[in-house]
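Anyone up for a design puzzle?
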């Protein structure tokens, strides 16, 4: 199912900052968020205009009625209505010390589930790390896998599973 893959031209009109990166689909399955290194955009698989949502930030995700993005090392959340595709209110900081990924500060390694569960990495290189489940008070409640050079994380909608991207720096393999 799903049909044949096709390329989308979702570049911002003034594509001078490295092109579209880190797409994240909204609940309707037609619209998606992406970044171009320092701005957050909204586009559709149906084509049409690409709209700038924020003039700052990193990769972005939608969950629990909010647009999540990193601004520097701070993870921010701003109310977002996926029906009207509009931001409202002011962004608020939900975490600090969110680290950047292997090759770019725009990566800001975090993931938010549809239920609002959050996981992020607080480093700036790719050291030997481990993922730890935390309760709502920030207390560790479990470990995920073995220590590894973790590049990326993504949680499922139920908050019960996490996928990790691991690199072997000795072999330069992902």
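Challenge accepted. My sequence:
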């Amino acid at each position: 199912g799903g049909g044949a893959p096709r390329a989308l031209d979702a570049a911002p009109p003034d594509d001078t900052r490295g092109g579209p990166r880190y797409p994240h689909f909204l609940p309707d399955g037609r619209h998606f968020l992406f970044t171009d290194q320092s701005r957050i955009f909204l586009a559709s698989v149906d084509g049409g205009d690409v709209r700038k949502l924020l003039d700052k930030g990193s990769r972005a995700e939608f969950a629990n009625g909010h647009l999540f993005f990193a601004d520097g090392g701070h993870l921010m959340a701003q109310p977002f209505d996926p029906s009207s595709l509009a931001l409202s209110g002011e962004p608020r900081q939900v975490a600090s010390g969110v680290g950047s990924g292997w090759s770019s500060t725009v990566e800001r390694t975090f993931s938010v589930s549809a239920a609002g569960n959050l996981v992020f990495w607080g480093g700036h290189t790719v050291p030997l790390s481990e993922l730890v489940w935390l309760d709502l008070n920030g207390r560790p409640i479990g470990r995920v896998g073995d220590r590894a050079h973790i590049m990326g994380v993504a949680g499922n909608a139920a908050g019960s599973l996490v996928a990790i991207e691991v690199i072997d720096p000795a072999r330069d393999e992902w």
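A detail worth pointing out: Residues 64 and 115 are 6 Å apart (CA to CA).
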